[in-house]
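Entry 14. Ran structure prediction on the chain below.
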Amino acid sequence: MNKRPNQNESGIIFKLDKVMKEKGYSKNKLCVNCNLRFETVQGYYNGNISRVDLYVLASICKELHCNVQDIIEYVGD
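Output, structure tokens:
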């Protein structure tokens, strides 16, 4: 599999970085507004997570006014 930036071994691509840039959010702003640890946001931002926490995902989507598909995408072989 040809890995893309922000893609983990399962073929999931995390696009939180793009959505945050479009909406004018920094990692710190997202942390404060969603009451999340910086390390948590950093993991989603860089695609360095192995398990998705639905509470975290819902909090991010609510704050950024976006859908899950805007943040996470599956790319098959």
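Residues 12-74 form a domain with the 434 Repressor (Amino-terminal Domain) fold (CATH 1.10.260.40). Will compare against last week's run tomorrow.
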